[in-house]
TrEMBL record:
<dbReference type="GO" id="GO:0006730">
    <property type="term" value="P:one-carbon metabolic process"/>
</dbReference>
<keyword id="KW-0560">Oxidoreductase</keyword>
<protein>
    <recommendedName>
        <fullName>Dihydromonapterin reductase</fullName>
        <ecNumber>1.5.1.3</ecNumber>
        <ecNumber>1.5.1.50</ecNumber>
    </recommendedName>
</protein>
<dbReference type="Pfam" id="PF13561">
    <property type="entry name" value="adh_short_C2"/>
</dbReference>
<dbReference type="InterPro" id="IPR020904">
    <property type="entry name" value="Sc_DH/Rdtase_CS"/>
</dbReference>
<comment type="similarity">
    <text>Belongs to the short-chain dehydrogenases/reductases (SDR) family. FolM subfamily.</text>
</comment>
<keyword id="KW-0521">NADP</keyword>
<keyword id="KW-0554">One-carbon metabolism</keyword>
<dbReference type="InterPro" id="IPR002347">
    <property type="entry name" value="SDR_fam"/>
</dbReference>
<comment type="function">
    <text>Catalyzes the reduction of dihydromonapterin to tetrahydromonapterin. Also has lower activity with dihydrofolate.</text>
</comment>
<dbReference type="GO" id="GO:0004146">
    <property type="term" value="F:dihydrofolate reductase activity"/>
</dbReference>
<dbReference type="InterPro" id="IPR036291">
    <property type="entry name" value="NAD(P)-bd_dom_sf"/>
</dbReference>
C-alpha cells in the first residue's frame, strides 16, 4: 500500500484505537491520532511517525478547532474512524448533567461534525468512514440508557450519511461485542459474559481491525453495520 493515504482515528491512545493506529501504520498510512487524556499509547504512535492531535470531544468548540487543525495537516482523507467513547452507566450520567452532555457529544454530536465538515477531504480521496457503535444499539441496556441512545444516534448517522454522501464517500459501522475486557472486570463478570456469547471467547482486537480493513477495501459496501461480537447480540 502506498504511503500517501491518510487516516484520522478518534480515541487512538488506548485499546482498539491504539491497535488500529499501529495496524494502519503497518499498512503504510499517515495516521493522525486523536486523544483526549489517554496519551500513553500516543507517544508510541508518534515515534512511528503518526501525528497526534488533542481535543475533548465533549466540548464542541474543541471539535471545531480539531477540524480546523486536521485541514491544516492534510488536504485529503482516505479513512475516518469515529472510535472515541465514554462508557458511562446511569449512575454516572445522573450524578451530573454534564456527564449526559459528554455521552451525547462524544458518541453522536462530535462524529456528526467530523463527518459533515471533513466530507470534502474524504470526497477528494473517494474515502470512507467507519463508525464504532455497539451491539446494544439494537437491544439497549437499561443500565446504560444514555450511552445506548447516543450510540444509536451514531448508528442513525451512519445510515443517513451513507445516503447523503454517496457516491463520493462510503459510510459504515462496526458493532463490537466482548472484544477486550476492561481491567475492572472481575472473573465472575467475564465468565458471565462469555457464557452469554455463543462463541465462548473474548474476541481480541484483530477481528475488529480485520473488519475495518474489509470495510475500507470493499468499494461496494455502504450503509452497512457489521457485528463483531462472537454472536453475543443473539442472546442479549
Amino acid at each position: 500500500m502506498t504511503n500517501n493515504k491518510t487516516v484520522f482515528i478518534t480515541g487512538a491512545g488506548r485499546r482498539f484505537g491504539l491497535a488500529l493506529a499501529h495496524a494502519l501504520l503497518d499498512d503504510g498510512y499517515q495516521v493522525i491520532a486523536h486523544y483526549n487524556t489517554s496519551k500513553d499509547g500516543i507517544a508510541e504512535l508518534e515515534q512511528r511517525g503518526a501525528v497526534a492531535v488533542q481535543a475533548n470531544l465533549a466540548d464542541l468548540q474543541q471539535v471545531a478547532r480539531l477540524i480546523s487543525e486536521l485541514k491544516q495537516h492534510t488536504q485529503q482523507l482516505d479513512l475516518l474512524v469515529n472510535n472515541a467513547s465514554c462508557f458511562f452507566d446511569n449512575t454516572v450520567v445522573d450524578d451530573d448533567l454534564a456527564n449526559l452532555s459528554t455521552v451525547l457529544n462524544v458518541h453522536t454530536a462530535a462524529p456528526y461534525l467530523l463527518i459533515r465538515d471533513l466530507q470534502p477531504l474524504l470526497a477528494a480521496a473517494n474515502g470512507s468512514v467507519v463508525n464504532i457503535t455497539d451491539i446494544y444499539v439494537d437491544s439497549p441496556s437499561t443500565n446504560y440508557v444514555a450511552y445506548c441512545a447516543a450510540k444509536a444516534g451514531l448508528a442513525s448517522l451512519t445510515l443517513a450519511f451513507a445516503k447523503k454522501l454517496a457516491p463520493a464517500v462510503r459510510v459504515n459501522a462496526i458493532q463490537p461485542g466482548p472484544i477486550l475486557f476492561l481491567p475492572e472486570h472481575d472473573s465472575e463478570h467475564r465468565q458471565k459474559v462469555l457464557a452469554e456469547t455463543p462463541l465462548k471467547l473474548e474476541g481480541g482486537l484483530e477481528p475488529m481491525i480485520a473488519t475495518v480493513r474489509f470495510l475500507r477495501d470493499n468499494p461496494f459496501v455502504t450503509g452497512e453495520s457489521i457485528k463483531v461480537d462472537g454472536g453475543r447480540a443473539l442472546l442479549i
